[in-house]
Task: inverse folding
């Protein structure tokens, strides 16, 4: 990892520049360049070393202990000590220590959200499952790392270690390599081009000087100085500072960046593949609609309930096994805790109602029965309440329920999980409790949903406006996935949903065609998520993948940027990701996209600035001998401009605020050069203008016999570069619209750099070091006037861009 930090093209060019500086005898330049190289190497090493901990975190994900029956004795073992064939005892609260086949089940329910994305615990059965390709449908299996939330059971270990589902995911994670960020690719391309151009121009200057009869040693030193000056060694520092500032801002926005380039990468993504549970939704079931008695279906309001609604809420409280938890919430099955919260909205408290109607008997829920019945004392009589699947509960009513079953079907089609509630008055508790589940009266229908986050819809809208496609990839049921996708605006009503079974039947080519138009994928396995991400990347897209479970880790690693959930996410997902959302809020990604685009724009500003100023220096030295003028600058002047004008002002560009249009333009094309959008044209004409001003000043001063011509040329070229950096704070907006003081670090850098330049002119010790002479007031005013021409020329260019006369095919900063 450490060696790889020194193989980047820009780093190699900088090392070469340091060697050249050594020939020039400039130890300060050597120290500055090598310091930047070492700093970047250390930062890169630390970031990548931390990323390698992903597989280690996966290995550490294990149950703390396993209750195992061996030789008729119950013993406690570590998961590593299990072998296939061991009998494992499971109970509520325990973590499954290996992949097990269930052989006994007493209302056993397991939370498999970390593997499947399902927000609901899955009931485990003993019956053989004929065909279940998806993990979520294998009801006779429990998997390592999942949590038992209800009941108890026994299972036979069928897989351990790397043979488990988690182990299979670990293999995918280990085999999946990292991808290069857009920033890394663009800077590598920039470094290669710049190295070739600089070497060619330096060779031209050296040959031209020798042909004119200049001193060979002096020309060689000048060419080497220009080579050092032309390489923007501040670029890696500017990139690092920009990314670090962005990462610090993102922490305040509840996003932790694990790898600095991840912030910029988000500004380049064209697709965000997001999980549903806990990412777009709250990961907490909620009663969405209620239909009590003869009342039509409606949302539950926060108000005291009366009549049929009060009866329904009482039933939800009494026919419920959830328990009170510290802090006033509830613990137990997510569906039952959601029902208690709904009852509390209607003013029904569990403690009071349980006291008034104590439970005397019950028929527990089972998947075969798909319902639960409880019997309660009501004064001198009794009342029985039943809740469960409508198709198993409603037929027990004494009246025709065909209309009610149609109502339940409509609720279910909208993605809701529907429960039916019925009741029966009793004179006594029958000997056969099953008898109470007939001759019942309808009480109501309940529609539940894991609701979308309030911010999710607006975040999706902003992504759409920014040209980013949002795709939901979940292990949940297709109807539920579609309902959430419709609510947050990912798809229109009635849109098609692609399932994992359909995906497995698609070839890679067919999958590429499908991902171009599909926006919701449901019942998917870890391999499916990985295939989807790769199919999008093969189409030339840059993909961000969000997730929180172990099953998301391979796709998080493969994606151009992986975004993990910090609160609900597993350690494996966090370690495999590039960025962690501390608040698990999808809307935070929108802020990250804005920050990423701002950072890339600021890096482009520095490249625009450094190319323009360096081309001005190069052209000045190339053209002067051609038109018969003496060399306008000494090597020390070139190095001074390189260190002063490229340094502080260039770094201050990293603090520039985002433009107002930053989130209303499409993403940059992944193949787009950093020179796109008129950047290279700008660098050429501004460099030419700087050359004309510098050589014009030199020629005029020599013509009138002014002995200060070299100091004046040096000053014009330096101040024109400072005027340029002030003007390029935006590629479209005028500085006067932005406000002069909106980037205070840049304003401070300009004041300091101008003061340093004046010091080289008016301080005697620096006069001797830089071979300069003090300028008169008239001479200094002439230099300031000439330099200001660059500022107004760039402002005029931006006016033409706003009116559509220049770079009309660029994408406004892209």
Result:
């Amino acid at each position: 990892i450490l060696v790889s930090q020194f193989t980047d093209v820009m780093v190699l060019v900088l090392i070469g520049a340091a060697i050249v500086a050594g020939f020039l005898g400039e130890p300060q330049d050597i120290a500055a360049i090598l310091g930047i190289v070492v700093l970047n190497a250390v930062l890169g090493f630390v970031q990548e070393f931390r990323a390698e901990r992903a597989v280690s975190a996966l290995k550490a994900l294990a149950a703390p202990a396993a209750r195992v029956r061996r030789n008729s004795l119950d013993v406690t073992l570590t998961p590593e000590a299990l072998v296939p064939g061991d009998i494992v005892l499971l109970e509520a609260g325990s973590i499954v220590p290996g992949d097990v086949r269930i052989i006994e089940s007493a209302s056993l329910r397991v939370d498999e959200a970390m593997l499947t994305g399902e927000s609901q615990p899955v009931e485990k059965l003993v019956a053989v499952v004929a065909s279940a390709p998806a993990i979520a449908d294998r009801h006779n299996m429990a998997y390592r790392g999942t949590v038992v939330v209800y009941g108890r059971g026994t299972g036979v270990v069928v897989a351990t270690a790397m043979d488990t589902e988690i182990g299979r995911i670990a293999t995918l994670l280990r085999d999946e390599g990292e991808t290069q960020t857009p920033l890394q690719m663009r800077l590598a391309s920039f470094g290669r081009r710049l190295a070739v151009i600089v070497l060619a121009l330096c060779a031209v200057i050296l040959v031209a000087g020798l042909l004119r009869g200049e001193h060979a040693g002096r020309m060689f030193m000048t060419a080497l100085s220009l080579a050092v000056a032309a390489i923007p060694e501040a670029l890696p520092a500017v990139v690092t500072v920009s990314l670090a500032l962005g990462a610090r801002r993102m922490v305040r926005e509840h996003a932790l960046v694990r790898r600095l380039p991840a912030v910029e990468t988000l500004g380049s993504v064209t697709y965000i593949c997001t999980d549903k549970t806990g990412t777009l939704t709250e990961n907490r079931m909620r009663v969405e609609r209620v239909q009590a008695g003869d009342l039509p279906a409606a949302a539950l309001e926060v108000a005291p309930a009366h009549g049929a609604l009060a009866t329904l809420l009482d039933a939800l409280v009494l026919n419920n096994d959830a328990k009170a938890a510290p802090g006033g919430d509830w613990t137990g099955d997510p569906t039952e805790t959601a029902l208690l919260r709904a009852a509390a909205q209607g003013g029904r408290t569990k403690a009071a109602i349980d006291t008034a109607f104590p439970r005397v008997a019950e028929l527990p829920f089972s998947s075969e029965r798909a319902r639960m019945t409880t019997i309660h004392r009501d004064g001198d009589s009794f009342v029985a309440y039943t809740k469960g699947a409508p198709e198993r509960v409603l037929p027990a009513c004494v009246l025709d329920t065909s209309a009610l079953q149609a109502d339940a079907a409509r609720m279910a089609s909208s993605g809701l999980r529907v429960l039916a509630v019925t009741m029966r008055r009793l004179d006594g508790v029958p000997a056969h409790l099953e008898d109470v589940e007939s001759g019942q009266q309808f009480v109501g229908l309940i529609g539940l949903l894991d609701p979308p986050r309030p911010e999710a819809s607006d975040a999706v809208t902003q992504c759409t406006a920014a040209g980013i496609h949002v795709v939901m990839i979940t292990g949940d049921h297709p109807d539920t996935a579609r309902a959430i996708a419709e609510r947050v605006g990912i798809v229109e009503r009635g849109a098609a949903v692609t399932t994992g079974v359909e995906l497995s039947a698609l070839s890679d080519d067919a999958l590429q065609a499908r991902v171009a138009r599909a926006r919701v994928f449901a019942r998917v396995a870890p391999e499916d998520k990985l295939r989807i991400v790769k199919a999008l990347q093969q189409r030339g897209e840059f993909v961000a993948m969000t997730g929180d479970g172990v099953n998301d880790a391979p796709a998080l690693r493969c994606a151009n940027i992986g975004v993990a959930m910090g609160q609900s996410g597993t350690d494996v997902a966090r370690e495999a990701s590039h960025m962690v959302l501390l608040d698990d809020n999808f809307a935070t990604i929108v802020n990250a996209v804005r920050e990423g685009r701002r950072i890339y724009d600021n890096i482009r500003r520095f490249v625009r600035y450094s190319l323009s100023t360096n081309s001005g220096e190069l052209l000045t030295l190339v053209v002067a001998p051609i038109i018969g003028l003496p060399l306008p600058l000494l090597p020390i002047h070139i190095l001074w401009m390189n260190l002063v004008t490229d340094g502080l002002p260039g770094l201050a560009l990293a603090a520039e605020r985002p433009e107002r249009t930053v989130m209303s333009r499409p993403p940059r094309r992944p193949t787009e050069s950093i020179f796109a959008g008129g950047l290279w044209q700008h660098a050429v004409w501004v460099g030419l203008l700087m050359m004309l001003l510098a050589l014009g000043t030199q020629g005029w001063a020599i013509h009138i016999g002014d002995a200060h011509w070299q100091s004046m040329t040096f000053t014009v070229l330096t101040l024109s570069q400072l005027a340029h950096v002030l003007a390029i704070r935006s590629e479209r907006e005028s500085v006067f619209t932005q406000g002069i003081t909106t980037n205070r670090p840049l304003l401070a850098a300009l004041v300091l750099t101008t003061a340093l330049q004046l010091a080289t002119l008016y301080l005697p010790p620096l006069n001797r070091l830089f071979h300069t002479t003090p300028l008169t007031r008239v001479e200094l005013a002439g230099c300031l006037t000439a330099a200001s021409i660059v500022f107004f020329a760039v402002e005029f260019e931006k006016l033409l861009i706003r009116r559509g006369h220049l770079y009309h095919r660029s994408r406004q900063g892209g």
